[in-house]
Amino acid sequence: MDNKLDLRAKKVLVTGADGFLAHHVVAELKKRPPLTLIRADRAGYDLREGGAVRALLSDYSPDVVINMAGLVGGILVNEQRPAEFFYDNLMMGALVLHESWRMGVEKYLACICGCCYPDGAPSPIKEDMLWDGYPQRGSAPYAIAKKVIAVQSEAYRRQYGFNSIVLVPGNVYGPHENFNLNDSHVVPALIRKFYEAMRDNRSSVKVWGSGSPVRDFVYAGDAAAAIVLALEEYEGGDIINISSGSATSIRELVEIISDLFGYTGRIDWDRSRPDGQAVKVFDNTRMKQTLGYECRTSLREGIRKTIEWFSECYPRGIVRS
Ligand code: GDP
Q1: Claim: this prediction has a pTM higher than 0.85
Q2: Residue 64, phi then psi, degrees to nearest 5
Q3: What are the residue ranges spanned by the domains of the chain?
Q4: Mean pLDDT, rounded, for 135-144
């Protein structure tokens, strides 16, 4: 593409750099030497404060900002701390974008999330459905704080010509995710359960729900590749879903994971646990057409890599769990 941003010559700031997807974005950026990478994590600057955001940007003068900072967590913690999930995400999102514009940053990228879409949005979920309804109640304070970033980004593009883009990664999984059983998504939860069942010679594994819900899982390395590609090539006000586009039932997921572990015990379906939405698959037509990108890692291969990482890191106590 003509306008391609050459990241090799740029100073790129990644906020929230210790987060799950940010780990993969950083790895993708490192494939573009001699790009100058600045990683800001939560220990450094309090991005809920304008002064700290200004200090971060003036300390490093980045050309490009990828804002991956946010207060994240599962449904339980979202329900316990809704005010914090609203305020922290609203402030971090608004301030980092605003100050980046004020400081003359050349390109800005922020990610929102699949939970920003209306509760029960019909699949495949298209970008244009973002404002069709209220998000799922439990995570709405988080989701609403996130989705206003799409409005802010488009407004700054329109009024100031600020080159800011917003992406919506779908059901991302992979190494570095949260593997805490109370609070994790299905892929890390199941990997941990099957790992522990194999390690402890357990005769059964408990899986939540009926197995019939359908999701499209995207490997974090693929999502990160799409994010960095969008940073280089996309200059538009429309949000873009980042997803695999292929539908997998929880039952199929369980088969893949148990097979990769060589697990031959029983699967107990715990139907007292909620299934959640029956089908949640994101439409990735815009990603394919606008970025010319398709996810390359099959679910089996992505799960295999995640299991490999987990099996190496979990016994060493370096997994978030
Ligand atoms: P969702 O995509 O927002 O619904 O979030 P999850 O990744 O938490 O759950 C996806 C589906 O996996 C739901 O139908 C869950 O019931 C099912 N599931 C099966 N076993 C587990 C588990 O151990 N943990 C989680 N989080 N979900 C599970």
Answers
A1: yes
A2: -130, 140
A3: 11-173+217-244+281-296
A4: 95
